[in-house]
Amino acid sequence: MAKAIGVDVGGTKMLFLLLDHQGKILERKKLATPTDKKPFLKTLVDGINDIKGNEKIEGIGLDFAGFIDSSTGIIQFSPNMPWINGVNINSYLKKSFNEELFFENDANAFALAEYAVGYKRKYKNIIGITLGTGVGSGIICNGFLVKGQGLGAELGHMIIDHSSGKICGCGNIGCFEAHCNGKALFEKAMEKGLKIKSNEELHYYLKRDDIRAIEAVKDVSKHLAVGFVNIINIFDPDAIIVGGGLSEIGLLLDTAKKELSKYKLVRNDTKILRAKLGEDAPAIGAAMLVFENRREQKK
Ligand SMILES: [Zn+2]
Q1: How remote is the CA of residue 168 from the centroid of ligand 1, in Å?
Q2: Are strands 59-64 and 3-9 parallel, antiparallel or unpaired?
Q3: Are 57 and 148 part of one and the same domain?
Q4: Confidence band (pLDDT; 50, 70, 90) for 11?
Q5: Residue 223 belongs to domain spanning
Q6: How remote is the CA of residue 140 from the centroid of ligand 1, in Å?
Q7: What is the model's pLDDT at position 138?
């Protein structure tokens, strides 16, 4: 049975998975992400070797929480690990491994995983959205990942309300991400008068039906709906699959779905679904890049 390795490189942890071609996890290993370039690269190689053992694998896929050029394997920009900017992961890993190597942004890997493994290719056209510290996205069109020249599919940085003056982490004003990430929700909650230190505390108030917490979530939902309207009208996908920490707030997605009815859409029955694979999704998607590439070559 064909096997591949998927590595999810996040700001605090690295997850290594050994997967079969159907996306079943055969081995897993989690390591803390070192905070400098040299120890990071060493941990990356050691982790892959460790999970590989004596297995014969088809390839290695790596996803990264930031801008990584999938065509070159060069990290362009990392919001959490500035010391890694400009590093060519591809040429470094090539020194240690003969297998084929693939690279992708974590949200693209997430979308691929939910398409191929989570929803077992039930929908051919999906948009994956992750709502967390940032708003990530991946586009699957007719069963294949869309990424432009290698850095594409950043729907989180489509501008949905320039007049808001809300500055995004990317430097632009009024991005989808700036209105719908964890920080936006937190700021809304404070604005509504809640004295909280983190979004975890917001869950506490939501459970007690606190009106301030409910209003904060609903306000963010309105912006989420605007993003969904743009996505539906541009891509006409079968489904928008939503993951990330914020997607666990049922009220957020439910309200966004209701809000959609206020807009003119190319289609009114686009499914808004919750992601199925949880935290493992990006690493699963990274490994699936290996198998998907084979399909792409046959296309
Ligand atoms: Zn932005």
Answers
A1: 5
A2: parallel
A3: no
A4: confident
A5: 124-275
A6: 21
A7: 97
pLDDT score for 299 = 62
Do residues 211 and 260 share a domain?
yes
Residue 266 φ/ψ, nearest 5 degrees = -65, -25
How many domains are contained in the chain?
2
Give residue 154 CA to ligand 1 midpoint distance, Å: 9
Cα(263) to centroid(ligand 1), Å = 24
Neighbours of ion ligand 1 (CB under 5 A): 157, 168, 170, 172, 175
pLDDT score at 151:
83
> Bridge-partner residues for 173, per DSSP?
167
Kindly give the distance from the C-alpha atom of residue 51 to the centroid of ligand 1, in angstroms, as a whole number: 36
Mark whether 33 and 85 lie in a shared domain.
Answer: yes
- Whole-model pTM? 0.94
- Give the pLDDT confidence of 36-88 residue by residue, as tens digits: 999 999 999 999 999 999 999 999 999 998 889 999 999 998 877 889 999 99
CA–CA separation, 59 vs 62, rounded Å?
A: 10
Same structural domain, 270 and 284: no
Phi, psi of 166 (to 5 degrees): -75, 115
106 Cα–ligand 1 center, Å:
16
CA 173 / ligand 1 centre spacing (Å): 7
Distance in Å, CA 224 to ligand 1 centroid: 14
Ligand 1 centre to CA of 183 (Å) is 13
